[in-house]
Amino acid sequence: MWDHEIKAMASTHAIIASSVFMATVLPAVLVPGFSVYGAHLLWLYSVSGAVTVVSVAVFWLLGITPPTKKHTLGYKLSRVVRSCLYFFLSCLFFHTVVVLYGAPLIESALETFSLSVLLTSLTTLRCLCVLGPNVQAWIRVFSRHGAMSVWDTCLQITVACTLVGAWLGAFPIPLDWDRPWQVWPVSCSLGAMIGYLTGLVAAPAWIHYHRKQLTYKCK
Amino acid sequence: MKVRSSVFASFILIFEVVGIALFLRGFFPVPVKSSFSSKSSLSDQPKEPLAGSAPNSSRLPQPLFKRVVIMLVDALREDFVLGPSGRMYMPYTRHLVEKGSSQSFVAKARPPTVTMPRIKALTTGSIPGFIDVVMNLNSPALLEDNLIWQAKTAGKRIVFYGDDTWVRLFPKHFMEYDGTTSFFVSDYTEVDNNVTRHLDSTLKRDDWDMLILHYLGLDHIGHISGPHSSLIQPKLLEMDDILKKIHSALEAEGSLPYLLVLCGDHGMSETGSHGGSSEPEVNTPLVLISPAFKRKVGMEKPAVVEQVDLTPTLALGLGLPISQNSVGRVIPGVLEETSLRDQLRFLHLNGHQLSCLLKDSVADYEKDPGFEQFRVAEKAHGNWMKLYLEGNTSEVLTNMGKKVLKQYLEALAAMSSALSKQLGKYDMYSMVAGMLLLILLLAMPEALSGAASVDLPVLSALLSLPFYLLCLLLASVHVLVCTSAESSCYFCSLSWGLVFAAVAFSSAMFCILVSIATRRLPLGGDGEWSLSELDVLLLAGTVGHTLSLAASSFVEEEHQTWYFLLNTLCLVVFQDVCRKYFREQRGPGGDEEPILPSKDCRSSARPAAGIYSERWLALATPPFTCCAAGLLRSLNQTGVQWAHLPMSDTGSTGCSEHKLVLSLLSAFCLVLIYLLVQRRCSWVSKVALALGLLGVYSYRAAVGNVLFPWQHAGRTTSKGTVEARFVYVFVLGILFTGTKDLLRSQIITADAKLKSRGLWEIYSGLVLLASLLFRAHNLPVLCCCLLIQTLMAQFIWKRLHYDAAQTTIMHYWFGQAFFYFQGNSNNIGTVDISVGFVGLESYVEAPAIFLTALSTYAGPLLWACHLVCYLSSERDSPVALGHGCYCLALLRSVPAAAYIVLVTVLRYHLFIWSVFSPKLLYESMHLLLTAAVCLFFNTMEQSHGSSKS
Predict the structure, then answer these.
(1) Contacts of B649 (CB under 8 A, 6+ apart)
(2) What is the predicted pLDDT for the residue at A70?
(3) Which residues of chain A neighbour B639 with C-beta distances below 8 Å?
(4) Site from A100, A112, A182 to mutate, B interface, most B CB atoms within 10 angstroms
(5) B67 in a structural domain
(6) Nearest chain B Cα to A170, which residue?
(7) CA–CA distance, B790 with B786 (Å, rounded to integer)
(8) Which of B876, B900, B924 is the last residue of a domain?
(9) Are residues B505 and B542 in the same domain?
């Protein structure tokens, strides 16, 4: 039914996934002594930067963002400003949630904030790209039977996968194995990343296999 | 036969309690202990037997050794010294074993092959059980009669270097000591150098009689890289050098004979760990070197002895009384070079001690073959002594003496094995029986159905063929197990009638449950399951928590699991709330409005402003819960990994500024508790509650935790008995009023309002009791608990229309989290025993245990009680309460049953004593408590049903 969309989605996801791959490989080549565990923050920033840039570019090129009512420059500018604000607020929100989950409050605030930046660039940014800075639309998409297009379903799947990955990533931390990836926030960010990649693969596949059952009520 | 589902659930819970009790009975064997609490002393020693005249001398033979050096190498495996590679690893020791004046043995250690129990076994000669650890909860010191204590009492000067477990076990026993911790497993050189550095100076001096060295390095290497690593050989060569050094220093001195003991506490498995019962873990070398022994001519195959045999051997060799609970027998090879009279005397002493222990621990000891043999040998010994003292020195006498010696040895072997049969072994039969009972009862297929009653096909089950077959099978298994020789089970000591009744009952249960399950099976398939996020979380959390119990770290850090789940729960509830209020406001679907008629008619009556404030309160509740959980978490740091972090709040620090803060905090908390609880009580209870809370504060002031506004500065702190009793009176008063209301509602008026008031009164009585028992800095925990309960009940559970199962699971999770917020952990050490003394002048066992249990489980208990109150007062469907009860029973028994299976599988795990066994005790206690709560539920539902009809 939505063959065209699914193809577009799969290629988009392939581009994003390859950008993640490049963001991991390039620093390893360029920066001496780089490793995912050792220079974890660097990896975090490079990955979140790459994902941000590539998703914004790809989604802008695809033009999935809902059509704006006004085409004035001022309105567009305000949208951009609001998007940036939401991005920042979402970082703060994730930071608060992670601290409530038991992350150290002061000691490793930088690490925690980097993790929240990663989470934001994996989840909120996508919402911003697909739905625009519109909180009502976000709430609609993330409630039951709220998806109104293939892209909404895809968004639900990737965001859920990322968050569940980060959530599961916290479990090995209390174990006393003394492995390098048990250090805060390595396991969580790795979990989020793996979850995100899984989501990128799973979303087109799931939609492809359920394309007969999917019906969206148009508003 | 139709049974109400809650009755069925409580019935099942009671049987689970029985099952778990059976399991515990098998898992923690009752230790063999002599009934005397005192320790054996020299004056208690039996007289030397002499036929005819009165036994004349209680003389002990001369000590064989003057000085003893015990060199204990942790995880020294038998083949490291005595095996084919021993020549390469420990050349000097091997030389001594083959050519020197030495005796070498393979000493079998008993599982669990972990250092601390092994040290206890080596010093007491008994095989310690976990239950000992629980019994002397407060003191890590070894209180039993032991070799070190005996040596110290006899005036021996003991020097110790090595693992600080010894220092903790024997405080003040050593003249000189230096403990090394085995904290850093990756360090295997420094830990041994810290022991060896004292050696030179100590060996030069002669102001000690006993030197104990405990080397940890080998064990650490084993944990890091296993028994075949390249690190093993240098380490063993180092140990060999140390042994050579000690040996030559002792040789040079050459006064009275010395004894040098080289032994291991346990072995090492092929992967380098220990704790289990495999051959390489159990077999340790035991090399005794002394000039008192005959020189060897060549390597012989070493004899096999028990590890505990070293204790009586050392005790006799040093001229000390054998410690009371020792089950070891003296190693005859050590005594070979002494005179026949002394040999017989030594064996007699050992035999007497064992027979005393046997008398105390076995009911029909007189029929025991070992005991009989000992009596015979003692008599023969007396006869021999008579002849000996008469000056008879013929060949006949020597032969007769040899015969007595042989009799003694046989008697010792028989008695020792009879004793150790009861010790240190899991009673697998009881364990499996308990486990089967638990798992069988887990088959609760109706659990989530929400039906009011369960149909039990009793008659058809009793008449079916499988029932009889099962009966036959179980009975034959029982007969088979009990008639097989070497087992000693609890079940086999029960009477046959009882056992067969149990067999019939359990097979009937099994048939019934299977038939229920098969009846449900086709029904379960057709229902379309649609789960919300909350359901997914609740299911995944329950299953995940159960699975996490398999890892020792997760058991140690279980509180983290619950905090994590609680936070996630709050976030998901937050999402639900957001969705409800924002979607509703936009109102495109309109599909939610008709579902909530009851809510609509209520809220439409209110002004619009009320709805808005209510919405914001509802939105604020989950984040507030999250924040409260975060704060409470930092209040009591529990768990192992982060134990070193400072607590943000402790009642123990005595500075006055801190005290002021604490007093203000607790006063505020008490006021808040009053405000939160009093709403639903009658005025009598309100007054009682207020006075009671005042009493709590004055109790805290009397004990010295908080400041009293009009208190003299110089007032000494008392135990606060009067104040605590004052509070108890009010607790009892409130509970009494509540019960009275309940009874009245049930019997006379059938008034639902009166009944719910009675329930809330009972609940507030419990709150008052908890506020008395909680430590002062824990009052905020109680306060938060009440606050969250109120908010959640008001704005979340009622408004979002969660069904009884969801509400129950949430209550259970909150209860678990609050159990850890209180400062509990899965470690026995965090149980606050001081609670048992609140309001009591001295220790009285029953109330102390009751109060301790109550305060430890206050969190889960309060939440469970709140669940009863909430379900019976807010819900109008009579099924809800029974359904909730059913869910609670299921929630509790799933982890308990899974945990029991896990513990059985992991019974030779390295941490079985330190991590899994305490958790098992906590689990079973919690199960017991839940059973009690469910019974309470049951009576409530019964009255509910009667008041309805």
Answers:
(1) B635, B662, B777
(2) 62
(3) 174
(4) A100
(5) no
(6) B564
(7) 6
(8) B876
(9) no
Q: How far is CA B369 from the centre of its chain?
A: 35
Compare all CA atoms of chain B with the CA of A141 and give the residue at the minimum distance.
B579
Residue A191 region by backbone torsions, left for phi larger than 0, else alpha for psi between -120 and 50, else beta: alpha
Asked if the Cβ–Cβ distance from A176 to B553 is below 8 Å, we say yes
Predicted-assembly ipTM surpassing the 0.85 threshold: yes
Q: pLDDT tens across B806-848, in order?
A: 888 999 999 999 999 888 888 776 777 777 778 877 777 788 8
Are residues B570 and B470 part of one domain? no
Q: Which residues contact B330 (CB under 8 A, 6 or more apart)?
A: B309, B312, B313, B316, B346, B347, B350, B412
Q: Which domain holds residue B254?
A: 72-323
Instruction: Among A97, A143, A175, select the one facing B579 at the smallest CB separation.
Output: A143
Task: Name the closest residue on chain B to residue A138, using Cα atoms.
Answer: B579
Contact B567 A136 (CB under 8 A): no
Query: Are residue B552 and residue B452 in the same domain, yes or no?
Result: no
> pTM of whole model > 0.80?
no
Judgement on whether residues B686 and B784 belong to the same structural domain of the protein? yes
* Together in a domain, B492 and B562: no
Rg (CA), chain B: 34
Here the tokens at position B682 are: 């009658």
- Verify cis geometry, omega within 30 degrees of 0, for the bond prior to B369: no
Chain-chain contact of A97 with B633 (C-beta, under 8 angstroms):
no
Interface test with A, best of B549, B564, B825 (most A CBs within 10 A): B564
Which positions 625-654 of B are in contact with A (Cβ < 8 Å)?
A: 626-627, 629-630, 633, 639, 641
Which of B326, B244, B294, B324 shows the shortest CA–CA distance to B69?
B244
Place of tokens 């360029």: A30
B514 and B541 part of one domain? no
Residues from chain B contacting residue A176 (CB–CB below 8 Å): 553, 641
Nearest-neighbour CA in chain B from A184: distance (Å): 14
* pLDDT tens digits, B673-690: 998 888 878 888 888 999
Instruction: Of B181, B156, B153, B151, give the one whose Cα is nearest residue B166.
Output: B181
Q: Decide: B890 and B931 in contact? Cβ < 8 Å.
A: no
Q: Examine the fold and report which residue of B826, B843, B876 is the final residue of a domain before the chain moves on.
A: B876
For strands B258-264 and B283-289, give the pairing.
antiparallel
B64 occurs within a structural domain: no
Helix (H, G, I), strand (E, B) or coil at B453: strand
Kindly state whether residues B512 and B542 are assigned to the same domain. no
Strand partners, B28: none
User: Mutate which of A98, A139, A161 to disrupt the B interface (most B C-beta within 10 Å)?
Assistant: A139
Say which residues have a Cβ less than 8 Å from residue B755's Cβ, sequence separation at least 6.
B741, B742, B745, B746, B872, B943, B944, B947
Show Cβ contacts of residue B478 under 8 Å, excluding neighbours closer than 6 positions: B491, B499, B503
As a whole number of angstroms, the distance between CA B245 and CA B251 comes to 10
B574 and B452 housed in the same domain: no
CA separation for the pair A152, B402 (Å, rounded): 95
Asked if residue B826 lies in contact with residue B919, where contact means CB atoms within 8 angstroms, the answer is yes
Q: Which CATH number fits the domain that encloses residue B203?
A: 3.40.720.10
Residue A182 CB: number of other CB atoms within 10 A?
15
**Cβ–Cβ below 8 Å for B557 and A174:** yes
**Is residue B936 situated within a structural domain?**
no
Question: Per the CB < 8 Å rule, is B563 touching A142?
Answer: no
Residues 511-570 of B with CB under 8 A from A: 532, 548, 551, 553-554, 556-557, 560, 563-564, 567-568
Interatomic CA distance for residues B799 and B819, integer angstroms:
27
Q: Tell me, yes or no, whether B338 lies in a domain.
A: no
B295 in contact with A at a CB cutoff of 8 Å?
no
- pLDDT tens, position by position, B692-737: 998 888 888 887 777 776 655 555 556 678 888 889 999 999 999 8
